[in-house]
Amino acid sequence: MKKEDWKRIFYQSLTGFVSLALAILLFFAIKGFGEIRQSFLWLLGVLKPVIYGGVMAYLLKTPCNFLEKRVEALLPDKHKKRANGLTVLFVLILTILIIYLLMSMVIPEMVGSTLILVNAVPQKMDEFAKWLTGMLDGNEMLQTYANTAIVNVENHLQNWAKTDLLPTMQGMMGGFADTVGSVVGILYNLLIGVIICIYLLLGRKTFARQGKAVLYAVLKTERADAVLTELRFIDKTFVGFFGGKILDSAIVGLICYVFCIIMTFTMGFPNAVLISVIVGVTNVIPYFGPYIGAVPSALLVLISGPVNCIIFIVFIIILQQFDGNILGPALLADSVGLTGFWVLFSITLFQGFFGFVGILVGVPVFAVIYDMVRRLVMTGLEKYGKTELLQGNAADVPKPDGGRTEK
Questions:
Q1: Are 64 and 204 in contact (CB under 8 A)?
Q2: First to last CA, the chain
Q3: Which of 199, 277, 334, 406 is spaced 20 to 30 Å from 291 by Cα?
Q4: Rounded mean pLDDT of 256-278?
């Protein structure tokens, strides 16, 4: 038997063995999926401080990079090497100050508004019923439906308070020790995470050089260049999305605050600061955020009267239309490039897998996946000479470099 025949038999046997081994591994992986998932969750629990620190460092690296060059330009030559440390210290102090100011404004308002809302609900329900009955005066059938609906809501709230709320409160009191332990654990993880964040920010350039060195040591130059290009694109997508979304939410919160201040002097709107913060913060959540923030805000406005609540709901609808069709696309157009359907699809998909975290990161992650698939399709069509299939869809055709050219 020739040497080539032996090689062919050897590679065929090796391929069959590897395929069988992979099939066995897949079988046991499916069979023990529960144990694998529990092990993965346990590993995530152990690495929580590192994850917290990594996320915080990634969010703060952009302002650090932005300010470092300016701080370095202000320092004399012998102190320029301290620019990185001074920048990290300044950004951390500024972040802590912003969080403190927000909490100092929001928490007292939230506590006071909650107490007022709890005490005012029965009275406001009666006022709302009288107002609605007056609006429907002359139409007995609609009045009957409205009164029945209001009575059903009141009965439902009373039953909920007796059957759900009180047992829940008792369970919370019974599990107070567990709650305290959970809070202590979260604070511990956050504290360690902050320390890790500081180390990562201080050594971000060193870590980048080390990672680049490992990449070029393991892969060929062409492959390493391609990986680096892809990583730059992913970083650009995430930074662009979160930076644009934070700016977008800040503008939305500011517009809401101006409106609430005006309505406070004209219509007696309550809690302008709290309402604006709720609307702005929840707007960070893609797609569902505006609706999540509108519900508690409308309840707070309801304290001052049903007419004010209706005015506020109409304003929120107009504001979200402006944000969704004008402001948001202007700030996020270059970061994700997804249509409304794919945004909703990505949020739904990643929320099912990762919960609230999936809602936050689902859009940029899916934007990266979408871009990769789009470029693979384009490459395949060019290979087989079928690029005419994309005629009429120029917006979906990627640039030759996938939009990764550095300016």
A1: yes
A2: 60
A3: 334
A4: 84
Cα–Cα dist 397/391, whole Å: 9
What tokens were used for 257?
Answer: 């605050």
The answer to whether 172 and 179 are in contact (CB under 8 A) is yes
- Contact, 362 vs 347, CB < 8 A? yes
Hey, how many other C-beta atoms are within 10 angstroms of the C-beta on 359?
21
Rounded to whole angstroms, how far apart are CA atoms 147 and 158? 17
| Tokens read off for 321 | 């239309």
Per the rule left: phi > 0, alpha: psi between -120 and 50, beta: everything else, 406 is: beta
pLDDT category at 175 given cuts 50, 70, 90 is: very low
Cα separation, 116 vs 297, in Å, equals 14
Gap between the Cα atoms of 127 and 143, Å rounded: 15
How far, in Å, CA of 52 to CA of 58, rounded?
A: 10
Give the tens place of pLDDT for each residue, 115-166.
666 666 666 666 666 666 666 666 666 667 666 776 676 666 556 555 654 5
Which pTM value belongs to this model?
A: 0.65
Which has the closest alpha carbon to 374: 342, 332, 326? 342
pLDDT (0 to 100) of residue 84: 87
Place of tokens 């802590």: 96
